[in-house]
């Protein structure tokens, strides 16, 4: 039987930063200097990575499947847009409000999620997202209808840093928000709360039998994931000055699942790595065949599934192992 000190030691080990993690974030920061002409796509990668991280929190750690995670993204996007058109001019305040609005929706809908199994959850999440999509078109006086919100202007961050057309401020802003929320997510998953989520994912009946409040844990992580998705939606609107019904589209939720297929689930960095891979593949295949880039990405996904991510990683690391073979 695992003792409480042993569990504490394990959590402390998980909380320590490895060299790989430090290198990853240093490399992410270095892209600001290395790719000065690619700030726009780097900004897209940053908010997409946060969006993927939000889904990984419920899929990779709690085992909640969702086909409508774009619902929270869209609520965050429209909240940020409406606040920018209204009285709230500080982008950071509007961003927090976007996350809060999405978290409220996540909390309300979580009671539907905990009552069903995987297939039911898929249909419920898809239905919620579809309803919001049609509501965004129906109430055109508020949302702008199919054209979306018009005339969005984002004021300078803290009144000092203007969002320029090259995306310099936008990228640093998105990267900073991504890093701070990643730190929070890392703390959450490497805590007793995170360990209880893993237990629920592996066997919810056993988790309930040993005294874990399963429903309350699922509601909490679902609400947190909705908050993260809402923040990602707010970043999308603030950096593109757009908010249209497309933010609720099924394709956006589907692309998010593709990101996690590429990067993996259950270790936080899967969404980040997957976002980078997805955007690179999208840009590469779009430059080759603009009309059929989705076909090639689909082919890559099939290859990943057939070969297996572990084997691909072993192939990639093989040259490094070969070079270090025989060294003390």
Description:
By secondary structure, this protein is mainly α. The chain has a domain at about 30-250. Helices cover about 75% and strands about 0% of the residues. The chain has 15 helices and no strands. The two termini are about 40 Å apart. Residues about 315-328 have low confidence and may be disordered.
- Taking the alpha carbons of the first and last residues, their distance comes to 38 Å
Query: Using only CA atoms, what is the Rg?
Result: 20 Å
H/I helix tally: 15
The amount of beta strand, in percent, is: under 5%
Uncertain segments of ≥5 residues (pLDDT<50)?
315-328
DSSP strand count: 0
Mean pLDDT: 84
* Helix and strand sequence: HHHHHHHHHHHHHHH
Q: Helix and strand layout, with pairings?
A:
Blueprint: H1 4-15, H2 19-34, H3 39-59, H4 70-85, H5 91-113, H6 118-138, H7 140-143, H8 168-189, H9 192-202, H10 204-209, H11 214-240, H12 250-263, H13 269-288, H14 293-307, H15 309-324
